[in-house]
């Protein structure tokens, strides 16, 4: 938990040293940031440090403690102020109460036993007040980002005493989520962002970068920084380091990856709502750039210009290839369609394109007596993680179409149990698949499954499994992106030599010969 910061002001240096030694400030939750013996310099130090607590002697030359307290308040600072007094100075204490200062300690009565409970009380009160202030600040910050108008005074509540004439950066962090490939299969859940006060406790006191405020909106965490100093390189370096710490925090808490959109330097706080909207639009397009990106967003709206994804002609061609059961043609159309999507970067167009592909795929499944792919279909295994990336969505559709076209055309006439067995094989071919496991899943005996499967398909369960694995291996070999041992593992063979033997028996060629021959 963040420690309470303290600034001591007393013209007697020995008195401040004595107070420092009376208790273990650190163990009590405090950190003494500085001790100042010249009260005229104390104001500038307070403006720089912005302490939570100031301990000030009432009687000092040049400027009294009360005068200093008035100056601090007039400067917009709101520390808790404790006045040090003596028996003869109660009139000063009464005046302090009129200023709203209710804490004063009698100097010569202070010892460890009396100071410790006073500090414990102050710590608890300051933390309670700080929690309330943080809640108000986060609420106002969230309202500002949501395009609700704030007054200048409300903005100063968010940004503090140095609110005006500063340069700001807004960082928006959001967990990478699967793209809504099917209209009814969005994840429906939001991963919690880290607790903003915990972030605030780690990101204070830097000559180049200061955390101003943070707020969680849905599953996104919005963090506002104030920049200072002249070195642009150092400021950017510090900003990226701070963002990386928060990103790591979210990833450690929730798993997965997190992408970040960072605004350009903002000189006007009223532009924050537009910067937030631009950041969200950037994060919507992470499907095209891959997960865990860090993107600096320009205010120029032309950076969001996107070509419309003209998916209609390709979908029509793909439907014809599906009716002709021509997987090579269908696969080529699918690859070209997703290359076009990558160039267009049209989020809405991609969503509609995926919906059309799913409709074609479901018609093929239903014609084979299989259930449509919808939210219920994903309940067991969850939404595919590969849907985070455009390439993953493409490969998922390629795999699904390959499975459907690899199925015998008459499979719709099979019994329900045989159709379910074939579906299990096509969905889990990369895993350890046995007749025993399939029979147990279907609730029938192994012998009964083997009998009806052979009778209706003309194949054994192992034959059907091998056929699916070899067809998938052919597809991966044609793509040419993986080594043979990697392909073997992808299609369910842990031993690449055994995979080559099975492949040769099924095709008449080794995997290398198949690649060299560029077979369809």
UniProtKB/TrEMBL annotation:
Region (Disordered): 182-201
A single BP term in Gene Ontology: phosphorelay signal transduction system
Signal peptide location: none
Family annotation (InterPro entries): CheY-like_superfamily, Homeodomain-like_sf, HTH_AraC, HTH_AraC-typ_CS, Sig_transdc_resp-reg_receiver, Tscrpt_reg_AraC-type_HTH
Pfam family, one: Response_reg
HTH araC/xylS-type domain span: 419-517
Domain annotation Response regulatory: ranges: 5-122
Residues carrying 4-aspartylphosphate: 57
Molecular function GO labels: DNA-binding transcription factor activity; sequence-specific DNA binding
PANTHER family per the UniProt record, alphabetical: ARAC-FAMILY TRANSCRIPTIONAL REGULATOR, HTH-TYPE TRANSCRIPTIONAL ACTIVATOR RHAS
Protein name per Swiss-Prot or TrEMBL: Helix-turn-helix domain-containing protein
Source organism of this protein record: Cohnella thailandensis
Source taxonomy: Bacteria, Bacillati, Bacillota, Bacilli, Bacillales
